[in-house]
């Protein structure tokens, strides 16, 4: 029996843009919730997180896992940054410093996990994903939901200081939701819409949107340490993962080059650097080698030579 050909799903250079040349990110399909008393009950060691250090959505999950002190409760596996024809590989298929083998099934690629969970799966093989060892399936592959579960569902297993840390506090939910509503399409996904556009007009529209939204974010963060409510929330995590990749990758690879963060957005730069240098959950979840190698290597339709630029030097400025 020959294996089913899934290369149209795993090879990003074969993904089709919309008719107008714009890029459309499809919704995630595994959307179950880990919650006490539910089918997916929170238990130590039951769930496994798969991430790439390169991916901003996966990095959200890594940061929140660490902020909440979930390292012993939810183990993590890191893929190799070079996403090729079969999608994300594990270290045995493509060794890279900092990449791991799959400890659960010895899978060669992330796609093997998706097809194990559902042999008819017909969407993209994305990270992050949370695997359940009891039901042998993917619980959830949508980072915005994964970070909400990490925020609350395991609190009864955590020491008081970690349980009390609330990244989506009731009192600030409306404001966080309002920020997420434009940060996601205009910044997090906006840079991809600029970079993956295959028509001049679609690119220009996307890149203008990115910079108008950055201008707005710069105003909001001016004079503040956090975006909402004077405390660290998921709004910071969700914006931060894109801002930290901006100068090393999005300025060049995705042609978001009106300005850099370091030279054009002093307040966003100050906020980004403070989180990176003063909070290990951010620094330890950031691997610039994986980030730069991933983007510049994995999109040969954008960068056919696969040369990874050396700069910017440094990748992030000191405090
Ligand atoms: N909605 C998802 C998006 C995740 C996503 O698109 N991840 C990218 C990496 S940055 C991926 O794994 N892409 C693989 C592919 O499209 O083949 C989330 O936020 O979790």
TrEMBL record:
GO terms for cellular component: cytoplasm. The record marks 250, 295 as: Lowers pKa of active site Cys. Pfam families: GST_C_2, GST_N_2. Coiled coil: none annotated. Glutathione binds at residues 88, 124-127, 142-143. Residues 1-20 are annotated as: Disordered. Residues 169-295 form the GST C-terminal domain. InterPro entries: Glutathione-S-Trfase_C-like, Glutathione-S-Trfase_C_sf, Glutathione_S-Trfase, Glutathione_S-Trfase_N, GST_Omega-like_C, GST_Omega/GSH, Thioredoxin-like_sf. This is Glutathione S-transferase. It comes from Mycena pura. The lineage of its organism: Eukaryota, Fungi, Dikarya, Basidiomycota, Agaricomycotina.
């Amino acid at each position: 029996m020959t294996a089913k050909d899934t290369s149209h799903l795993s090879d990003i250079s074969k993904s089709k843009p919309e008719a107008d040349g714009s890029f459309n990110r499809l919704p995630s399909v595994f959307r179950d919730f880990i919650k006490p008393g539910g089918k997916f009950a929170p238990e130590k060691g039951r769930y496994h997180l798969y991430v790439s250090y390169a991916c901003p959505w996966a990095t959200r999950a890594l940061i929140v896992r660490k902020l909440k002190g979930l390292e012993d409760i939810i183990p993590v596996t890191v893929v190799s940054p070079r996403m090729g024809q079969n999608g994300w590989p594990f270290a045995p298929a493509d060794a890279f410093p900092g990449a791991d083998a799959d400890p659960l099934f010895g899978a060669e690629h992330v796609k093997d996990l998706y097809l194990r969970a559902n042999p008819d799966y017909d969407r993209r093989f994305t990270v992050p994903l949370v695997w359940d060892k009891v039901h042998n399936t993917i619980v959830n592959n949508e980072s915005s939901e994964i970070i909400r579960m990490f925020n609350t569902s395991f609190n009864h297993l955590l020491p008081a200081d970690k349980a009390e840390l609330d990244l989506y506090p009731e009192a600030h939910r409306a404001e966080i939701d309002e920020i997420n509503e434009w940060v996601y399409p205009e910044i997090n996904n906006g840079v991809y819409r600029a970079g993956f556009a295959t028509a001049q007009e679609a690119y220009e529209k996307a890149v203008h949107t990115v910079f108008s939204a950055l201008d707005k974010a710069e105003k909001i963060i001016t004079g503040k340490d956090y975006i909402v409510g004077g405390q660290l929330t998921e709004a910071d995590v969700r914006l931060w993962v894109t801002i930290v990749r901006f100068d090393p990758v999005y300025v060049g690879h995705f042609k978001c080059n009106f300005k850099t963060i370091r030279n054009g957005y002093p307040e966003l730069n100050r906020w980004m650097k403070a989180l990176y240098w003063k909070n290990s959950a951010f620094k330890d979840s950031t691997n610039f080698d994986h980030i730069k190698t991933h983007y510049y290597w994995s999109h040969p339709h954008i960068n056919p030579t696969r040369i990874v630029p050396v700069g910017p030097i440094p990748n992030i400025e000191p405090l």
